[in-house]
Amino acid sequence: MSRRLFGTDGVRGVANETITPELALSLGMAAGRWMREQGLTRRAVIGRDTRRSGPMLGAALASGLCSAGIEVATLGVVPTPTVSFAARTGEFGLGVVISASHNPAPDNGIKFLGHDGRKLSDEAELLIEALLGAVPADRFSGADVGYLHPDTELIEAYMAFLLGIVPEGLAGLKVAVDAAHGAAHELAPRVLRALGAIVSPIGVTPDGMNINAEGGATKPHVIQQSTVASGSDVGVAFDGDADRAVFSDETGRLINGDRTMGVWATHRQRDGGLHPPTVVGTVMSNGGFEEYLRSNGIGLERTPVGDKYVSQKLDETGAQIGGEQSGHIVFPHHGPTGDGLVTMLEFLGVLRQAGCPASTFIDAYGAWPQLLVNVHVSALAGWDQGRAVCAALEEGRAALGTGGRLVVRASGTQPMVRVMVEARDGALRDEVAQRIVAAMTDEIGAKVYSRVDLTHSLGE
C-alpha cells in the first residue's frame, strides 16, 4: 500500500482547501474505527496551536472520533509535547495534534500520536487511510456515542512534570522568551516564573494569523535582538507548536541545536552522568561540534536528516540526547519526542549549575565553515549518473579528505538536490561546492535555488 495522505509529519496543507473540515471529520471517524479494531483504549486526547483554523478542524476531528464511540479530552491551545505527555501518561489510545508547526498561519495539519506518545508508525497511518470513507457497519447512539470534554488537569500534570526538571529553580535568572505567537505563549512564561526566573516575553499575543510571522525559532534574529535589548542573561525562541527551541546568549549570539547538545552533554560528562558517552546528531551536524565532543571523550552518532531517525538511533544506542541544528532535541529520559520546553529547562538548568554566562558556551568551540546549496533539477532520477557530476563529487570528497565532509542528497518533497559542503577552510568549502554545482549546471541543466551559510545558523 502506498501513502496517499500522510506525509513525514502527519497530514498538512492549506486549511479549508486541502485540510478541510470534511477531511478532519473523515480522519476522526477512520482513526476511531482503527482504535476499536486494534483493541486500544477508547479515549483520545486533542491539542492545537493558535491558528484561526484550529478550532474548526479540531471540532470536526473530535466529532468523527466521538461518532466512532471514542471519548475525547480536549486540551485547547497547548504545545505538541503536551499532547505527547498526556497520551503516554494518561489512559489514552490516541493523541491528536492540530498544528502545522513552523508553517505560516494559513496552513494547518493533523498529526496522530500513539498511546506511547510517539508519532504513529507508517503502518498505522496506512491502516487509517484505508478506512477513510468506509461506511461503518454500525452506528453508535445514546450512551455509546463518545463524550467530548475539556481536561485542564492534564495540562497541570504536564506543568508539574516541567517544574520537576529544575528542582533547584531559576531564581533571579533573566530570560527573554519568544513564543512565536504560538502554542507555548502562555505555558513557557508561566513555568519560568514559577521557577523564579525574571521573564521578558515577546510573541505572546496570538490573533490566529500571526503565528510564526514575527519571530520564533525559525527567525532567531528576533530573540537575539530581544535578549540584548531586555538585558537578559539568555533568550529562548520556540516554533509554532513548541517542539523545538533555540537560544541566544547575553550578547545576542545564536546557540543552535548542535551547541545546545554540546553544552548539555559535556556538562553531564564532567559530572560523570553521561552513560553512554554518546550524542546522536544528523549528517548535517557540524564538524566542529563533533570535534568538540570527541575532545571531551564523547562520540557522535550520525543519522539521516529527520527526527524519526534520531529517535530510532537513540533507542538503538541508549544515548541520553539527540537532535538537529534546528533545535529539535530529544531527551529520551523525559519523553520520546522533541519538546521545546524540556529543552529550555535542561539548558537553563545547566546554565544555572555551571554558574557562567551563556556566552561561555559559544566560545567553547568554533564551528567549521558549512555551506548548503539547494539546486533545482528537472528530474531527480539519474541526476548523479552523468560523468561530469560523478567526477566532481569524487574530486570533492578527495579534496576535503579528513578535514571536511560532503553530503549530497535528493529532496524527498521537491525537485531539488541539496549539496552540503563542510571544511575547516572556508575557501576550500566554497571551491568544492562551486565545482559540484557547475558540473550539475553544465551536465543536467540544474539551477541554483538558494545558498545558505550554515556555519552559525540553524541548518534544516
From TrEMBL:
Q: Which residues are annotated with the PTM Phosphoserine?
A: S101
The prosthetic group or cofactor this protein requires is: Mg(2+)
Q: Please write the reaction equations for the catalytic activity of this protein.
A: alpha-D-glucosamine 1-phosphate = D-glucosamine 6-phosphate
Catalytic site residues?
S101
**A GO MF label:** magnesium ion binding
InterPro entries assigned to the protein according to its UniProt record, in alphabetical order? A-D-PHexomutase_a/b/a-I (IPR005844), A-D-PHexomutase_a/b/a-I/II/III (IPR016055), A-D-PHexomutase_a/b/a-II (IPR005845), A-D-PHexomutase_a/b/a-III (IPR005846), A-D-PHexomutase_C (IPR005843), A-D-PHexomutase_C_sf (IPR036900), A-D-PHexomutase_CS (IPR016066), Alpha-D-phosphohexomutase_SF (IPR005841)
Record's keyword terms, sorted: Isomerase, Magnesium, Metal-binding, Phosphoprotein
- Maturation and modification: Activated by phosphorylation.
Indicate what this protein is called per its UniProt record: Phosphoglucosamine mutase
Q: Which residues form the Alpha-D-phosphohexomutase C-terminal domain?
A: 372-438
Top-rank EC class of the record's enzyme: isomerase
Superkingdom, taxonomy of origin: Bacteria
Which residues belong to any copy of the Alpha-D-phosphohexomutase alpha/beta/alpha domain?
3-132, 157-252, 256-362
Q: Which residues of this UniProt protein bind Mg(2+)?
A: S101, D239, D241, D243
NCBIfam families given in the database record? glmM
User: Single GO cellular component annotation?
Assistant: cytosol
What role does this protein play?
Answer: Catalyzes the conversion of glucosamine-6-phosphate to glucosamine-1-phosphate.
Q: Which GO terms describe its biological process?
A: carbohydrate metabolic process; peptidoglycan biosynthetic process; UDP-N-acetylglucosamine biosynthetic process
Return the HAMAP family for the record: GlmM_B
Give the enzyme's EC designation: 5.4.2.10
Q: Which family does it belong to?
A: Belongs to the phosphohexose mutase family.
The free-text note explaining how the cofactor binds reads: Binds 1 Mg(2+) ion per subunit.
